[in-house]
């Protein structure tokens, strides 16, 4: 199997690293920066520290705080117009996956005419300006991926721009105030990304090492962070896991679970991490029919004991049961509890195959098989 090793940008990691943000941005040649975030993050102490660092470096700052979850194309277009009007020559994203994704998409519009929909899935455009990511959750790993997810409101689907950050500042202290439910959802996104990376058809040796390490860290430390959000060690371990997973799945790619989460998210407008968590057990059972050795690797990393006599199906089921129990312990609700109609869910099976992530599933599936996976997600949790 041919593989590609990559890391999209350098990462400045460590406690208090955000204090160096201004110098990092200035060293990239920026003088006028657009800070992209959401209103929740904009009210935090960590955001204030980041702004102080930028201003202390004599950088002119324009703030764009209108990002919402699953950022729609209209918000990105508004941010792009602001960036051009302000004459910015640098962008800083501060937040979780949505602000980081929106910043990537806004950067496409700095030197290219809108709307952003013209560049969804299209890598051919004039390069933007230096872009620095400051994650405030341990979830998407977007600081080290080449995609910025955008909701295409005309088509009612999630799509993406293609583009990298120039640098990332990963400071675990920025995640200390994240509420338990958000900690659980973002952490389960990391676990799903790592498990799917380990079983993807595009995996490579580096992605395998990083993703397996991330599984171990999430299983060990996510419950601690959910229980005590001020536990710095837990936050640091999860920040490492998230960053490692972003590097891993940028090469290996995620597959069926994220195709399902994207499709259901666009239809039902539910939290991405919750959907990834709910899909994960059944996706591992499916993966056991295609790459059983890789599923056993996921189980080993997750600390799930398999007996010598377990066949592939039994191994997949044991891992699925362990992941269901793990999600329940973190308070992840079922699709039924979230008000999802079962028939409406099953009707989405054909759309799952149209999501870009599905192409990296380890085995081709029929629509009937995908429908069965969706039914199992609904019935077995």
From TrEMBL:
Signal peptide: none annotated. SUPFAM superfamilies: Dehydroquinate synthase-like. This is Uncharacterized protein. It catalyses: a primary alcohol + NAD(+) = an aldehyde + NADH + H(+). Its cofactor is Fe cation. InterPro entries: ADH_Fe/GldA, ADH_Fe_C, ADH_Fe_CS, Alcohol_dehydrogenase_Fe. Keywords: NAD, Oxidoreductase. It comes from Pleomorphomonas carboxyditropha. Belongs to the iron-containing alcohol dehydrogenase family.
